[in-house]
From TrEMBL:
Pathway: Cofactor biosynthesis; coenzyme A biosynthesis; CoA from (R)-pantothenate: step 4/5. The keyword ATP-binding applies. Residues 6-136 form the Cytidyltransferase-like domain. Keywords: ATP-binding, Coenzyme A biosynthesis, Cytoplasm, Magnesium, Nucleotide-binding, Nucleotidyltransferase, Transferase. It is an enzyme of class 2 (transferase). Its cofactor is Mg(2+). This is Phosphopantetheine adenylyltransferase. It is found in: Cytoplasm.
Length: 168
């Protein structure tokens, strides 16, 4: 039986922590769909539009043959069902993530009982990385080259100007 999982997020931008989760999860599922949310929550203010986030994620995740990057602008469970997926993959960086992620998993299970949520933790060297921190450091002129793929570094440099150049 083929198992498809969906890893949703805004991926604004995709980080090495995201890549780590994708690399490890791609070994457990026949197909892993990285679902880039087109409409972030009201508390999020994306630095990159949906097309750019999808383009960057596709470039970064190209090495993984069973991984597909797709945009979505619907209720997550509707997207998951439309893709024939049975699993939602979520990352947990810290205990502080758990309460919110538990609520989401419970709501999704109420909406679509046949879809399970699976949690993975990032490798320790990525546990503190978040897209919002990467954006903030980059916008303030810090070097984020250790936290993102070079193409993402370049996109951040274009977005925030020369402030986010890597230290050579």
């Amino acid at each position: 039986m083929s198992v498809t999982a969906v890893y949703p997020g805004t991926f604004d931008p995709v980080t090495n922590g995201h890549s780590d989760l994708v690399e490890r999860a791609s070994k457990f599922f026949d197909c892993l769909i990285v679902a880039v949310a087109g409409y972030p929550s009201p508390s999020k203010h994306p630095a990159f539009d949906l097309d750019e986030r999808v383009r960057l994620a596709r470039h970064v995740l190209k090495p993984y043959e069973n991984v597909e990057v797709m945009p979505f602008e619907s209720l997550l469970v509707d997207f998951v069902e439309a893709q024939g997926a049975r699993v939602i993959l979520r990352g947990l960086r810290a205990v502080s993530d758990f309460e919110y992620e538990f609520q989401l998993a419970s709501m999704n299970r109420q909406l679509v009982p046949k879809v399970e949520t699976v949690f993975l933790t990032p490798a320790e060297q990525y546990s503190y990385i978040s897209s919002s921190l990467v954006r903030e450091v980059s916008a303030l002129g810090g070097d984020v080259s250790r936290f993102v793929h070079p193409c993402v570094q370049e996109a951040l440099s274009r977005r925030y100007g020369s402030a986010s150049k890597s230290a050579d």
